[in-house]
C-alpha cells in the first residue's frame, strides 16, 4: 500500500528536472568559491530576496546558527519566539555552541510576537547586570501562519529604535509570499539576514540559503567553515536548488489549495476541532475532541494503520502538511481515513 505522507513537506522527493540538473551540473571546489553552479544559485537567491549576496549551507538549522553567530558575539543576547524553531527544534545550539543568550517572547496564535513584550525584553542602557541585546528573530511562516508586511513594518521600526538587527527564519518564506501574492523580496526587505530552506516545499534533497549584505555574507562564510559547513563539489546539490527557485515556487499555490481542501474536509469530521480560517498556507493543525479519549500520538498511530501519516505537533494537536507529490485524490483519501478511524473510536467498537 502506498502511504500518504502528510507529516511534513521535508518528505518531498526531488523532481525529474532536479535529477536531470544534478546529473549535468558543472562543479568546482566551493570552499574556494569555484563551483559555478553554487555561484549561480547564490546569485539567484540574493536576487529573489532582494539582498546583495547569499550563501549555500547544508541545512536550515545551520543557516540559523551561522546567522546568529555572525550577528552576535559570546554573551550577546537574541530575542526569539517562545515556540519558534530556534527555541524548540535546534537543541538550543546558538546558546550551547555559540554562547548566545536566547530570550523568548510568546508566539501568539498567528505567529506574531507582541511588540510591547519584545520591548520589555530588550536590555536597556549600560548596566553591568544585563547582557547586550543584539538581535530579534522572527519566523515566517510559523506553523503555517503568515506574518504580514504591516506587522513586519512595525516590528522593524521597534528593532531600529533600539539599534537591533533583525534575522528572519524564513524556512517557508516562499509559502508566505505565494499566500500574500507578493514578491518574496517584499517580506525580506526589513531583515539584515534571512535563512530559507530549499528542502521543504521547494522539494530539493537538502540545503538552505542565507541572504544578506555582502559584508554579512562574507563573515557568514567564515563561520560556515568554522562549523564544518564548507562543502566541495556541492554544485551537484545546488543544481536542484536552482530548479527549486525557478520551477517550484509558483506551484506552492497547489499545496495551499490542497491544505484548504483538507481543512474543510477534516472540519466536517466528528471528533476533530479545527478552524479552517487558521489555514493560510500548507499546514493544517487540529485538535481532537476530548470525548474521543485519545492523545495525538495514539491518533497518528491509528491513522498510519489506515495508510495516512500525520504528526503529533504537541500534547494537544495534530499536524498535516501538503507538499509536492500530494494530489487532490490523496486529500480525499486522508479525509476518509480520518473519518473511519474516528468513527470507530467514537462508536466505541474498538478496545
Ligand atoms: C525545517 C526548519 C528549519 C531547519 O531546517 P533543517 O534543514 O531541517 O535544519 C528551521 N526553521 C524552520 C521554521 C523550519 O521549519
The low-confidence parts are none
What form results from the Cα inertia axes? globular
Q: How large is the count of helical segments? A: 14
Rg over CA atoms, rounded to whole Å, is 21 Å
Write up what this structure looks like.
With 351 residues, this protein is an alpha/beta fold. The chain has 14 helices and 13 strands. The protein has a seven-stranded mixed β-sheet, sandwiched between helices. A hairpin with a 4-residue loop joins strand 12 and strand 13. It is globular, with a radius of gyration of 21 Å. The two termini are 25 Å apart. It binds pyridoxal-5'-phosphate.
Brief account:
This protein has 351 residues and is of the alpha/beta class. The chain has helices at 16-24, 36-49, 60-71, 85-88, 93-96, 115-121, 149-161, 173-180, 184-188, 214-226, 235-247, 252-267, 296-305, 328-346; strands at 4-5, 53-57, 77-81, 101-105, 133-139, 165-169, 193-197, 208-212, 272-273, 283-288, 308-309, 311-312, 317-321. Strands 2-8-7-6-5-3-4 form a seven-stranded mixed sheet, sandwiched between helices.
Question: How would the blueprint of this fold be written?
Answer:
Layout: E1 4-5, H1 16-24, H2 36-49, E2 53-57, H3 60-71, E3 77-81, H4 85-88, H5 93-96, E4 101-105, H6 115-121, E5 133-139, H7 149-161, E6 165-169, H8 173-180, H9 184-188, E7 193-197, E8 208-212, H10 214-226, H11 235-247, H12 252-267, E9 272-273, E10 283-288, H13 296-305, E11 308-309, E12 311-312, E13 317-321, H14 328-346
Parallel strand pairs: 1-11, 3-4, 3-5, 5-6, 6-7
Antiparallel strand pairs: 2-8, 7-8, 9-10, 10-13, 12-13
Helix pairs in contact: 1-11, 2-11, 3-10, 12-14
The structure holds pyridoxal-5'-phosphate.
Pyridoxal-5'-phosphate binds at residues 59-61, 64, 85, 139, 169, 171, 197, 199, 208.
Amino acid at each position: 500500500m502506498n502511504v500518504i505522507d502528510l507529516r511534513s513537506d521535508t518528505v518531498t522527493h526531488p523532481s525529474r528536472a532536479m535529477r536531470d540538473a544534478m546529473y549535468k551540473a558543472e562543479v568546482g571546489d566551493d570552499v574556494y568559491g569555484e563551483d559555478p553552479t553554487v555561484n549561480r544559485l547564490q546569485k539567484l537567491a540574493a536576487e529573489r530576496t532582494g539582498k546583495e549576496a547569499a550563501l549555500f549551507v547544508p541545512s536550515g538549522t545551520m543557516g540559523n546558527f551561522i546567522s546568529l553567530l555572525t550577528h552576535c558575539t559570546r554573551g550577546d543576547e537574541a530575542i526569539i519566539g517562545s515556540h519558534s524553531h530556534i527555541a524548540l527544534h535546534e537543541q538550543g545550539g546558538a546558546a550551547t555552541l555559540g554562547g548566545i543568550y536566547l530570550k523568548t517572547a510568546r508566539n501568539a496564535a498567528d505567529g506574531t510576537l507582541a511588540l510591547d513584550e519584545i520591548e520589555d525584553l530588550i536590555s536597556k542602557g549600560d548596566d553591568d547586570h544585563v547582557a547586550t541585546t543584539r538581535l530579534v528573530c522572527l519566523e515566517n511562516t510559523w506553523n503555517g501562519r503568515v506574518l504580514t508586511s504591516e506587522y513586519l513594518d512595525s516590528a522593524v521600526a521597534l528593532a531600529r529604535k533600539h539599534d537591533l538587527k533583525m534575522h528572519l527564519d524564513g524556512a517557508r518564506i516562499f509559502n508566505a509570499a505565494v499566500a500574500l501574492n507578493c514578491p518574496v523580496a517584499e517580506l525580506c526587505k526589513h531583515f539584515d539576514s534571512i535563512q530559507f530552506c530549499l528542502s521543504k516545499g521547494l522539494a530539493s534533497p537538502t540545503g538552505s540559503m542565507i541572504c544578506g549584505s555582502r559584508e554579512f555574507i562574507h563573515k557568514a562564510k567564515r563561520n560556515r567553515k568554522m562549523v564544518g559547513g564548507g562543502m566541495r563539489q556541492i554544485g551537484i546539490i545546488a543544481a536542484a536548488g536552482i530548479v527549486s527557485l525557478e520551477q517550484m515556487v509558483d506551484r506552492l499555490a497547489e499545496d495551499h489549495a490542497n491544505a484548504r481542501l483538507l481543512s474543510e474536509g477534516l472540519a466536517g469530521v466528528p471528533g476533530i476541532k479545527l478552524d479552517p480560517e487558521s489555514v493560510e498556507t500548507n499546514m493544517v493543525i487540529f485538535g481532537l475532541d476530548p470525548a474521543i479519549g485519545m492523545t495525538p500520538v495514539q491518533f497518528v498511530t491509528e491513522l498510519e494503520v489506515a495508510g495516512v501519516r500525520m504528526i503529533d505537533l504537541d500534547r494537544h494537536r495534530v499536524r498535516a502538511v501538503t507538499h509536492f507529490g500530494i494530489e487532490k485524490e490523496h486529500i480525499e483519501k486522508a479525509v476518509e481515513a480520518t473519518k473511519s478511524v474516528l468513527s470507530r473510536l467514537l462508536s466505541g467498537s474498538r478496545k
